[in-house]
Amino acid sequence: MHLDERSNLILKRVVSNPGISNTELERKYHLSRRQISYSFTKINDWLKSNNYPKIQRTNGGKFIIDPLLMELFAEKVEHSAGSYIPSEKERAQLVLLMLLSSEEELSLLHFSSSLSVSKNTVLRDMKYTQKIVNGYHLEIVYSRMYGYDIVGSEWNKRKLLIEVLRTVYDMYQGETYIQAYTGTSREEIQRLKEQMEKVEKRLALQFIDQKIKLLPYTIAILLKRIKKGNLIKDSYHIDYEELSDTKEFEAAEILIEDAACIPKEERLFITLQLLTSNVLSSQFLREEETLELKSSLKNSLALFEKKACITFKEKEKLLQKLVLHMKPAYYRIKYQLTTNYSIIEKVSEEFEAIHYIVKDSLKPFETYIGCSIPESEVMFITVFIGGHLINSGETIQLKKRAVVVCPNGVSISHLMEHTLRDLFPEFYFYEALSIREFEQSKAEFDMVFSPVPVQTSKHLFIVEQFITDFQKLQLRQRVIQTIFGLNTSVVNIEQLISVIEKYAKVDQKSQLQKALQDYFSLQVLNETSKNQEYSLADLITPETIVLRDQVESWKEAISIAAAPLLHKGIITEAYIDKMQEQYPSMSPHIVLRLNVAIPHASPEDGVQAVGMSLLKLKEGLLCGEQKVHFIVVIAAIDKKKHLNAMLQLMKLAEMNGVINEMKRLNEKYKIYEIIKTHSI
């Protein structure tokens, strides 16, 4: 009788932890009470068919496990591989193990008899097995002369072998399968275990338990492949200078001292197995090896503190733990030897809340290592940090997570993101995303801000790209009430004016209404930081202002407006071309308050330095039914340096009286004086 994978997992869990409750099983395996009950029916049927005692339950729902079952699943008790029928996924791993370690030709009959299944079952399993090897750019082939084999790069075969060994070892009776299907003798494994202990002494460290058990099998199978002539030929993967100068390279000689004629590339690969092994403890790490690593991790922790609004207790202790873990991780990541750790599912449930902050804080380490960090490695770092917070009694008041979606250019999206960050300091904001990026994103979030409707199951707030202070106040009230259920009172300006009119004569009602809106907005909203690097008057100067009566087209307007920046070397011709390509016509999305158009492109499209230039058109250009008289070209090199100037430009665009005055002026310096006045 076959025991399915789900029932097998539940059986192992209950035997290893008889005190577990039904509710805990439901939560862990995401199953209903009915599904759990069905699995136990199958488990007991399987136990009965194999002459084992059934699992029983007390009236209180506790499991009663016969001691014989404890013995059956005890890790150190040896059983023949035939006493358990693996699932389809497990059989696929066993097939791969045989293909990667066997010294003889393998046929369908060989797999069928070894796995105790029919040939048709093996053929079905082969389809699933092929899907696994596809992920390593390998292929399973068959020939009458040589049987089944895996073809492709030896480097990729080694990566697959390491992952398969780890997966099989974690299976029920995994070590028994490895011994049975790889042909490694107990004597050889015992000898390699003793040599591993010598390596530990040589390196003054202690490997984690799984590595000390699994690495001897890895080395034994690698030596078999080397002896058979399956050698690494694409040695460009390995940096000889980097690895040969390590103590691990010297220690690797201990593991291969009984093997003759091991090529240099193979010695380096075995060195990598030591370098990428997780370490439980170490007496020392050479300072010259870890100085930059430690610095990058220190900067990452500082970034985490800033984003999470906490200060680590015993920060140096946490840093040392991370350095110890990240030294082998450095080599795993660089040489793409990271595996999908089985701990990840459990960890993601326990520490998911801080995972996104950890991921966002690792940029200094990514810069140091020169590549992105795999999700499983990020999760391990999350474990270190989350565990440290728990052990030191710290808690993070986790912020709600927000996404800003903007379908338009870089500057507009950054301005929108900056505005919302200032407005909602209690939220954690991801970097602004385009609609396509948002649709592809897997980030966890609680709310979305967007100027257009987007598909989401979370709270969606439709927000104009450019909002006044009073609109900010209204938005804040709406969001806080929706997210937290709090009513933040907003002064009703109309009612306030009605009260004033009872006791005083109001001659300019609309002006009073605007003044009151501005006043009460300032009482609630934080002032935008004035510590930005550039003001509007710093960037738009008389030298970057152009006056024209009219232009033939929007395309020409962009070229003329950008000319001062091009002349000063702030942008290249490519940047102008990109703006014209990106905005073939004047889109309302890039017009501030129907007064100022702001064409722009991305920094990588040809920006050499931060800058702005202004074109004033006496006749104006039509945008819909409205004429636009001012075009400001923006050249941004990052998200921050131009933001203060952008905010000032946005406020200026809202002032219709000032804009009308600027329309009448025909001198650059007078226009600049107005800009300067409103750049404070």
Automatic annotation (TrEMBL):
GO-annotated molecular function: kinase activity
Gene3D superfamilies reported in the protein's UniProt record: Mannitol-specific EII, Chain A, PRD domain
Record-given protein name: Ascorbate-specific PTS system EIIA component
BP GO terms, sorted: phosphoenolpyruvate-dependent sugar phosphotransferase system
Coiled coil (UniProt feature): 182-209
Alphabetized PANTHER family for the sequence: ASCORBATE-SPECIFIC PTS SYSTEM EIIA COMPONENT
Keywords carried by this UniProt record: Activator, Coiled coil, Cytoplasm, Kinase, Phosphoprotein, Phosphotransferase system, Transferase, Transport
Localization (cell): Cytoplasm
Residues in PTS EIIB type-2 domain copies: 400-487
GO cellular component: a single term: cytoplasm
Lineage top rank: taxon: Bacteria
Domain PTS EIIA type-2: start-end pairs: 538-678
CDD domains: PTS_IIA_fru (cd00211), PTS_IIB_bgl_like (cd05568)
InterPro entries xref list: Ascorbate-PTS_EIIA_comp, Mga_HTH, PRD, PRD_sf, PTrfase/Anion_transptr, PTS_EIIA_type-2_dom, PTS_EIIB-like_sf, PTS_EIIB_2
Function statement: The phosphoenolpyruvate-dependent sugar phosphotransferase system (sugar PTS), a major carbohydrate active transport system, catalyzes the phosphorylation of incoming sugar substrates concomitantly with their translocation across the cell membrane. The enzyme II UlaABC PTS system is involved in ascorbate transport.
Residues of the PRD domain: 183-284, 288-395
PROSITE patterns: PRD_2, PTS_EIIA_TYPE_2, PTS_EIIB_TYPE_2
